[in-house]
Amino acid sequence: MKKIITMPMILASFIVFSQEKIITKSAAITLEASVPSFQPVVGTNSSVTFVLNPVTGEVASLALMKGFQFEMALMEEHFNENYMETDKYPKAVFRGQIEGFDIRSLTEDYKDYTIKGKLEVHGKSKDISADAKITRSGSRVTFISDFEVNASDFNIPIPALIKYKLDNKVKIQIIAVLK
């Protein structure tokens, strides 16, 4: 009799704890390292995992570097082989905390937040502070953040030959729709 009662209780506790986090595997990250007067250098990865703990405001994101797609195949090849060295450093990871986050205060209007955390790219880790806009409509939470990082902070090489075509300052946008 104890086994009959215990098993459903254990399963129910797993369900409660697993619902604590909201996850999507289709968040999008766009990065841009364009320099005016030259061809735009823009890559997008639409298969990014993004996790939000609605109780604590903790966020985490994982992007496989080979998932970034560029307008030109040659740009994508250079990105993977020469700059990001994706065979050696296959992923980018962000772990952080949304300051003052309270999911109950979210509405259909975007609310501004600050996120602080660590970004790990190309074998290096750096503290990041970024602004984010977050909204909630029913059970759907939408998260948008724009920030910049320097390629040099992550030891990402930009050869002198093309330094005038590729900006060291990389603009990054993350859009995640969580259900």
Automatic annotation (TrEMBL):
Domain Lipid/polyisoprenoid-binding YceI-like: 20-179
Keywords, alphabetical: Signal
Pfam families: YceI (PF04264)
Residues in the signal sequence: 1-18
InterPro entries: Lipid/polyisoprenoid-bd_YceI, TTHA0802/YceI-like_sf
Protein name per UniProt: YceI family protein
Organism encoding this protein: Flavobacterium quisquiliarum
